[in-house]
Design goal:
Helices cover 24% and strands 17% of the residues. It is of the alpha+beta class. The radius of gyration is 20 Å and the shape is globular.
Length: 406
């Protein structure tokens, strides 16, 4: 089988995934959720949408397949520096929003208007979802703006790519990626993004992830991105046994305690999944730290321990990602947007400056792109949910506090 052409979402059969779209209009407390919509949260795939390895494409072609050498010496293909006109428009939108006195969690495209830049951002969104999958935006004067205004601008720009979703138990829709002094070996309790340890290649629980650099490290903290479709093609040629393991629904993924009452502490899934309804694209969802952390349950016999085949697959996948990755270092004011549907990304470990120089500090946004808004059709029941994916625990409302590390 080869990769099939993409059908417009509007051609999907009537009734497909209509149930989650009804969830979009469920009444919620608008004093807590300003737009009346909660993040959907983490879910296992729909069982009858899981496909056997033999049904996956033998080879993937198209703009989502690329090698790092295509971009290493051609930054003009993936780096955009804001023009003075674009910065003026962004600055005006941010000042207007701040002057309105609205809560930052209530920011929307209506309250952060970009009449000119929105056209570029729409094209960028399509390239992230359906093309190479990443971009580096440069030139935001965040040193003169300050951290609060930088957060407003970052969230405002992110809204033009997708719907902002909650990233953790607390409901953060503007997360803080910095070393908070946690022990990275305590995988069942700690997220690596809150440490200075290396992050292996992974995806986040969203369709698009954004990072804004507010302060750099003394050394390290280099970002890496790779095409999951290039990795697929490489593994298909060199390690088909590994791909068979990665497409099998035998992987238990830790929720790390971020659960609503009645939910399991883990999700059972595959790492590579196939986009439903004959669209045929290969989708990836992976984070090794959320698999390794389950030993507390496997030791009790609640989930199976990782098999030799799984351990091999994890090792080969990481090495193949590394060999096919583009490296970049984010500087002050840089924004990186990355697909989490068909790209994997990583970060090297880093060392912070000694005080009083600020430590490495990034803002992060997660965006959901439902299939009826041009996103991928996913084999999850919330594929049409406006704020699909993310982490939602009970009715914890969204939080966006640029000045408070969370």
């Amino acid at each position: 089988m080869t990769e099939t052409s993409v059908r417009p979402t509007s051609s999907l059969p009537r009734g497909f995934f209509e149930q989650p779209s009804r969830r979009n209009v469920t009444t919620v407390n608008r004093s807590l959720f300003p737009d009346g919509i909660k993040t959907s949260g983490q879910h296992p795939p729909i069982e009858d949408q899981m496909k056997a390895f033999e049904e996956f494409p033998v080879s993937i072609t198209g703009p989502t397949v690329w090698k790092p050498e295509e971009y290493t010496n051609h930054r003009e293909k993936w780096v955009h520096t804001f023009t003075s006109e674009e910065l003026s428009e962004v600055n005006t939108a941010a000042d207007a929003f701040i002057a309105s006195g609205d809560r930052l969690v209530a920011i929307s495209k209506t309250s952060f208007k970009l009449p000119q830049l929105s056209g570029y951002l729409q094209a960028l969104r399509d390239d992230i979802l359906n093309g190479k999958g990443f971009v580096l935006l440069q030139g935001l004067p965040i040193k003169s703006w300050g951290r609060y205004k930088a957060g407003v601008v970052f969230m405002g720009l992110s809204l033009y790519l997708g719907n902002l979703i909650s990233q953790n138990t607390e409901g953060l829709i503007l997360a803080h990626v910095t070393n908070q002094g946690h022990d990275p070996t305590q995988l069942d309790k700690v997220k690596i993004s809150r440490t200075n340890a290396p992050q292996l290649f992974h995806t986040d629980e969203c369709d698009i992830v954004g990072l804004l650099c507010c302060a750099t490290a003394k050394e390290g903290g280099e970002s890496g991105v790779c095409s999951a479709h290039t990795v697929w093609n490489e593994l298909r040629k060199t390690h088909p046994d590994v791909l068979k393991t990665l497409t099998a629904p035998i992987w238990y993924v830790d929720r790390k305690g971020e659960v609503t009452e009645g939910q399991d502490q883990w999700i059972k899934t595959a790492i590579f999944l196939l986009e439903p309804r004959d669209k045929g694209r290969v989708y990836v969802k992976w984070d090794a730290s959320f698999v390794k952390s389950l030993s507390r349950f496997s030791d009790k016999g609640l989930v199976p321990p990782l098999s030799a085949a799984q351990l091999k697959a994890m090792d080969v996948l990481e090495k193949t990602c590394l060999a096919n990755s583009l490296r970049m270092q984010l500087e002050l004011g840089d924004i990186q947007f990355i697909s989490c549907d068909h790209l994997l990304h990583a970060r090297t470990g880093f060392v912070d400056h000694e005080p009083p120089t600020p430590q490495r500090y990034l803002f992060r946004t997660w965006m959901g792109t439902p299939h009826d808004e041009g996103g991928w059709v996913l084999p999850f029941h919330d594929s049409a949910h406006k704020k699909r994916g993310g982490v939602q625990v009970e009715d914890h409302p969204p939080i966006a506090e640029p000045l408070i590390t969370g």
